[in-house]
Specification:
alpha/beta; 8-stranded parallel sheet; two-stranded antiparallel sheet; about 15% strand
């Protein structure tokens, strides 16, 4: 079954790319450096993303990378008001980037319909919490808990190891009561991986897609892009779009991107090229009435 009802929207991932915007209510996000930390800015950014064509907004209160501890109470204080206000203003899908079960429970109660767990169930209560809420879940490959210093990344075969990790976590999710059709996979570009690992994952993304569940590619502005083409943060938009398209070509159907307008244009153009989407109009060298 290719149709997925997520929140108040329906997606057919056989012929549709969902663009996920990023809203970080954090002072230390690697990309926006606190631009959407204030609540009004966070809500405005989410609503604007939906107006620009984003299908989905991913709201986070704690960055994945190492940094100062953020309590559950503070994380909830950051994200719950944003979820409530965005849900009241738009039918855009709302996901919450968290690895804590108690935050996930409050987030779904506030109006989020997806839990984006970048830790891959590091909280043993997460799977049961998501199951009880009826929400969708993004299961992401990473090593250990977010916010912690980790040793240099080592894999014998990064794709095989990521794939095995995801298979085990899917089994865990289903055993906890999460319907298989509510599960989305993310191989975790750059999460506890170096640039060579992430490029390999991108090249072989079809092996993750082959697991038969929708795949999310979160590539936007990440360090593997900067290192691959020697671009600092803030100058990675073209590399990000190229990486996004490489993932779409290999089967990703949800893309998590910072520059919403550019990502939406690229995704919709891909849909038109492969015949999934009709052109908005046909005028160039066309017969009157748009006939070919």
């Amino acid at each position: 079954m290719s149709e997925h009802i997520i929140g108040r929207r329906s997606f057919d991932f056989e012929k549709q790319i969902a663009v996920m915007a990023v809203v970080n209510r954090t002072p230390d996000s690697f990309y926006d450096r606190g631009r959407t930390y204030e609540i009004d800015a966070a809500v405005s950014s989410a609503v604007q993303a939906a107006e620009q064509g984003a299908d989905w907004v991913d709201i986070g209160g704690v960055p994945f990378g190492r940094g100062p501890a953020v309590s559950s109470a503070e994380e909830l204080e950051r994200i719950v008001p944003v979820i409530e206000q965005v849900a009241a203003a738009s039918d855009v899908v709302i996901s919450v980037d968290t690895y804590r079960a108690e935050v996930a429970e409050a987030a779904t109660s506030a109006g989020a319909s997806v839990i984006n767990d970048t830790s891959g169930f590091s909280d043993p209560r997460m799977a049961a919490t998501v199951a009880g809420s009826g929400a969708h879940v993004v299961i992401t490959h990473s090593a250990g808990r977010p916010r912690e210093e980790k040793p240099p990344a080592r894999y014998a075969d990064v794709v095989d190891e990521v794939r095995a990790f995801l298979v085990e976590r899917v089994d865990r999710a289903v055993e906890a009561g999460i319907p298989r059709e509510n599960i989305i996979l993310d191989p975790g570009h750059d999460l506890d991986k170096n640039t060579l690992h992430t490029l390999e994952i991108t090249r072989r993304l079809d092996e993750i897609v082959g697991l038969g569940l929708p795949v999310l590619a979160a590539v936007s502005n990440k360090d593997f892009i900067g290192e691959a083409i020697d671009r600092p943060q803030g100058e990675r938009i073209h590399g990000s779009i190229a990486a996004m398209m490489a993932c779409i070509e290999r089967g990703a159907r949800i893309v998590r991107m910072h520059d919403v307008a550019s990502a939406v244009d690229a995704a919709r153009m891909y849909e038109a090229v492969v015949g999934w989407r009709e052109p908005v109009r046909v005028e160039h060298n066309a017969q009157p009435g748009g006939n070919v």
